[in-house]
Amino acid sequence: MEWRDEGIILGTRRHGETSVILEVMTRAHGRHLGLVRGGRARRMQPVLQPGNRADLVWRARLDEHLGMFQVEPLELNAARLFASGIAIYGIQTLAAHLRLLPERDPHPGLFEMLSVVTGHLEDPAMAGPLLARYELAVLEELGFGLDLAQCALTGNRRDLAYVSPKSGRAVTREAGEPWADRLLPLPAFLQPEGGGADDTEALAQAFALTGFFLHRHVYEPRGLTEPEARGGFVAAVKRSLSGKQTHGGEAPDQDESRGAV
Fold first, then answer.
1. d(CA 20, CA 17)
2. CA atoms of 99 and 15, how far apart (whole Å)
3. Model confidence over 105-123: pLDDT tens digits?
4. What is the pTM of this model?
5. Which residues are registered as beta bridge partners of 72?
6. Where are the alpha helices (DSSP H) in the chain?
7. Is 81:87 a contact under the CB 8 Å cutoff?
């Protein structure tokens, strides 16, 4: 068995004295594991870092075997990502979400989104909205997608302001006002034609929304807890945006998460 594909590295774990088991998200073969012989060598360590893009050849005697990877670097992003605390939390969160999906199931749309998100993880104004949209996409791929295109009560596509926690469908501001305390706020940037978001309130609402449905449909039924990196990412983005709003410009990135990696 053999295939060749492009992938983004999610992580590694040690195997024996010199090798590692590599975890990647590939374009055509989904999240995939494989052995890299000599993966702990000094030459290979910079290549096998989370966020890097690589050309991969996978070989195994049988399809169900772990198999072995041959890895050639295409784009070394890790040094750039590891310079930002937000990016470190972000790549860990993205990997944790992908592990909710069955191994080796192809999800080309998620691969393309992963590529976009990893390209902007150091910019909090872009990283927050992109990762929130990524969580919506993960819910969709798991079969629990939200319907945010039109109002569940009126069919109207304008002035959508809430999401029903029962149905996962959007509701307009006027139609949902009588039950506003029971509905989840829907930030404008998560709507089909929404733009970016650079304020902490909108981002907090977005991650509260996706987090609610991740807990209800994924974490709790599987007996899982929310990955710690997700909370770290949200907190780091909010700190950065709050600093910019307070000081009227770039806030220094304290990289508080480095010690946890």
1. 9
2. 20
3. 999 999 999 999 999 999 9
4. 0.89
5. 55
6. 78-82, 85-98, 108-118, 124-141, 173-176, 200-214, 220-222, 228-247
7. yes
